[in-house]
Prior knowledge:
Layout: H1 3-34, E1 46-52, H2 70-77, E2 80-82, E3 85-86, H3 91-100, H4 126-132, E4 136-142, E5 160-164, E6 184-187, E7 190-193, H5 198-212, E8 218-223, H6 235-243, H7 248-273, E9 280-286, H8 315-318, E10 322-325, E11 335-337, E12 341-342, H9 346-353, H10 371-374, E13 386-387, E14 403-406, E15 409-412, E16 416-419, H11 435-455, E17 462-464, E18 471-475, H12 492-495, E19 504-508, E20 512-519, E21 545-550, E22 553-558, E23 566-572, E24 575-585, E25 588-590, E26 594-599
Parallel strand pairs: 1-8, 1-9, 2-11, 3-12, 4-5, 4-8, 17-19
Antiparallel strand pairs: 2-10, 5-6, 6-7, 9-10, 13-14, 14-15, 15-16, 18-26, 19-24, 20-23, 20-26, 21-22, 21-24, 24-25
Amino acid sequence: MNSDRRGFINTANKRRMLIVVFMLTGMISFYAKSKGILQRDQGKPNVIVIMTDDQGNDVGFQGNPHVNTPHIDTFANGAIRLGNFHQMPMCTASRAALMTGKYAQHTGAWRTSLGRTMMRSDNITIAEAFKVNGYATGQFGKWHLGDNWPMRPQDQGFDEVVGLRCGAVGQIADYWGNDYFDDTYYHNGQPKQYKGYCTDVFFSETMRFIKENKDEPFFIYLAPNVTHLPLNVAEKYSKPHVDNGVDQKLAIYYGMVDNLDENFGCLMALLKKEGLDKNTIILFTTDDGAQGAARSNCPDAWNMGQTGDKGSMEEGGHRVFSFLRWPGSNIETPTDNNTLISVMDVYPTLLDLCGLDAPEAANIKGRSFKPYLKKPLSPKDDDRPLFFYYFNPKNFDEVKSACVIWKNWRLLADVGLYDVEKDRIQINDIASDHPEVVKQMQEFFDAHHAEGLELIKEPVRFVLGDKRAKKVELTSQDVYRVGKGPQAFGQSSPKVLLQAHGPYKVTVATKGSYTINLSRYPLYTKLPFGIGGKKMNENDFAIEKVRLAIAGQTAEKEVTPEDTHASFTLDLEKGDTDLETWLIGDGKDGVAYFVTVEFNG
Length: 601
């Protein structure tokens, strides 16, 4: 039995266990409230984790002279500043590690695309751990760990969710027409249009959730999609930077940070107004280094004296700001803390701070840094190695994007060894001076990489035909690809008929009849096969027919330019299989960009 199938079965066991606990907790809570005997448990602190997107260290408190972040700076001044805090170098991997307390390859979600963004549902998330302990749970903003059951945030422990699909606005699974303003997001799985700028919406929904749940402890994961591409913000935020001589793209990026700060200030004001500020733990960070596109015209832009940005193995790719504050506790003394911390340490630490036990079945790999908040652990005295890199799905054995951290050492694959205590910008390779250190760190990495190779061999599969989700919606961003070739990642891909190839990895949960629709565009847009984008050129092709293959069956249909989709009804046996699709014309072909599969019973 493969590991993913095993995970699918274990999901049922996990759900049964959690449902029993939830039911007992809910029954007791309902009875106590109805009798008027349940008061707000002041012993349980609220918890808010804020993780922005691709922000690096662009905060005024960190030294950036351009951004305007007075509210964040005030918060940081009163917080524990975790100055040696490391994320993974890319979005999905960091978010998977946060949710599970594990390295991303343990979760199934270890890449931002190519069928590797889905987190296996047998992982017990931090939200589930808090929910079992009586917390109301909410997730607002970006998830990027799966858009179909049972991988969505509402399937993974969150009571209420308002967010976007996929990894960013404008990616292929995001609601079409979104542009950061007055967009359509998904409220507990259902599309709903919201008024306002994206960051305003996600903070506003968070504050609504707080007001509605202020009489019970809550756990919130607030994940704004800024400062991820596309670069977009109201001119009133970007113009002051342009007027100060900042490049236009960078000015928009800085304006997105300024808007974020305004919203953060509103959140802090609400907590104070509701009397919740003293008993609320807030961890504020970002998911990786600053995105490079904003600085493409300004290679020497401020970077806190670090080399590298998002995706880099250098310090600038993964060493990011992290502020922790709990005013009503005995750890409230503001301080700079240089303890070496990984994002996967957040899960056990927050439970530890709240006096809660981590679920044994969660198999957390991170460690609680609570013991080091009052007495920091010097990196020189820390024997734990950490690894910050991502596997290349085109070549699993490639390790060019690898960084090993041990004490103050940084071993970068094919680059060299650096002592960041003395050389933060990483310009002096001292590998030849310390061969014994290189040997030890290489051994650490080889063992870690070998384990990871075993963990990523089995894909996370989409589940077809489960009674809890009879319909699934797949997009070409999740085509499972190993070799070379283009990837149909953004909403521009179907417009220009980018020819990508590869299967969707699926599990047929129930034997029976299925209807499979293949289309060029989302069905809700009602756009036909024959409509193209402005960038159509001589290499584009007209779609003449569509084809699918699944579980040994192949079906094909001719289509007209006016058709919006092609529909197939097939009987499928239970089990793991590949779903392959083609849009065919002019002797060319590529995957169907949108696939809906519905179980007919």
